[in-house]
Amino acid sequence: MTFSLSSFESDDLTCFDILKVYYALTNIELEILSAVHINQPIDIKGITEIIPKDRTTISRSIKRLMSIGFAKQDRICLEKGGYKYLYSTLSIKEIREKTTKLIERINNRMISAISQLTEEKCIQIYKEIEEKYPK
Hints:
Elements: H1 15-23, H2 27-39, H3 44-50, H4 55-67, E1 71-77, E2 83-89, H5 92-115, H6 119-132
Antiparallel strand pairs: 1-2
Helix pairs in contact: 2-4
């Protein structure tokens, strides 16, 4: 489902809708976030056992979740040599706080931008339109 800002007035809006919009998350990224959160720490193989997707898709989604700070990776050394990565997530409280702060920052920027809307700016845009599309 695609969202516009007016979608936020809907009574059907969920916390997952907000996470998808504000962090540009896909459905699979939300599914992986949930699976990792419930089963943490978990490796890629464990995630693919829960969500039957290609390892590359899972890895790409995990990297995306790490890039926004929702997930982290720990390198574990194996007894027989080598290593593997285990993944975990922020707590729900931390995700909620991080998202609330982001929404507050964006809201403040939007209010500031809207306060700059003036009749003169509308006239300026209209003049630019007239120049762009001469008759």
